[in-house]
Design brief:
Blueprint: E1 7-8, E2 29-30, H1 43-53, H2 65-85, E3 92-95, H3 98-113, E4 117-121, H4 126-136, E5 141-145, H5 155-161, E6 166-172, H6 184-194, E7 197-201, E8 220-224, E9 236-239
Parallel strand pairs: 1-2, 4-5, 4-6, 6-7, 7-8
Antiparallel strand pairs: 3-9, 8-9
The structure holds pyridoxal-5'-phosphate.
């Protein structure tokens, strides 16, 4: 727990063990171990952003040169993000956070298909579960798949849950509480065979396991930069391809 005056140590900083004093006192420096919750902004990220927070602050949608050149910067960032997951730059949509991406992806599939059924799991992040609960108020049916004692899904349950009214299967890649990895490739293949959209909340997996959308059949992917050293409310996106749309 942080107390005032404590500072975050960077991974390379050494903490003096004598500060712990038999565990009775809080150390002068906080050792932060919850990078699944969020991460500090990396110095190189801050350096890359500084010009656009200070001197180059134009509106990229402006027709004047001051703003318009920012559009090129955004397109470069979009291409870099696409490269991270093997996508095409046109598939990257920046949003304000993964909560928004998750909501947008589910909304997009309901809107695109006109179907009224979502399949998800009981262990999804609250941003997905609350979104599903909100859709239930709009007469959308939601199947919440259970997990076993190891946090794993039974893929037979998934197959059984999909009907011809299913718009989307929304399942995460890595669980934010347990770290359990769902078999996204197998899930994607089942959904492809049944002609159902797949949305994957990849927030906890990005930067930790290989994510390549050319190898894994997913339609929408949510990623959030603040889990891997970007600032909060920045560099978050949903990925959608040609047959996919976003509201
Ligand atoms: C698995 C998972 N999904 C979604 C989110 C929401 O991300 P954001 O803070 O960008 O809205 C989190 C954040 O903790 C998460 O762990």
């Amino acid at each position: 727990m942080a107390t005032s005056g404590q500072v975050h140590s960077t991974p390379t900083e050494k903490v003096d063990a004598s500060q712990f004093d038999a565990g009775l006192q809080m150390p002068d420096k906080l050792i932060y171990l919850d990078h699944n919750a969020t991460t500090p902004v990396a110095p190189e990220v801050l350096d890359a952003m500084m010009p656009y927070l200070t001197s180059e602050w134009g509106n990229p949608s402006s027709s004047c040169n001051f703003g318009a050149k920012l559009k090129r910067v955004i397109e470069t960032a979009r291409a870099q993000v696409a490269e991270l997951i093997g996508a095409h730059a046109t598939e990257i949509i920046f949003t304000s956070c993964a909560t928004e991406s998750n909501n947008a992806a589910i909304h997009a599939t309901l809107k695109a298909t006109g179907k009224q059924h979502i399949v998800t799991s009981l262990t999804e992040h609250s941003s997905v579960l609350n979104c599903c609960r909100a859709w239930e108020q709009e007469d959308v049916r939601v199947t919440y798949l259970p997990v076993d004692r190891d946090g794993l899904l039974n893929l037979g349950d998934l197959e059984e849950a999909i009907t011809d009214q299913t718009a989307v299967v929304s399942l995460m890649w890595a669980n934010n509480e347990t770290g359990v990895l769902f078999p996204v490739k197998a899930i994607g293949e089942i959904c492809r065979a049944r002609g159902v959209f797949v949305h994957c909340d990849t927030v906890q997996a990005t930067g930790k396991v290989e994510i390549d959308v050319r190898k894994v059949p997913v339609d929408y992917l949510s990623i959030t930069g603040h889990k891997f050293n970007a600032p909060k409310a920045l560099v978050h996106f949903t990925c959608g391809g040609k047959r996919r749309s976003c509201p």
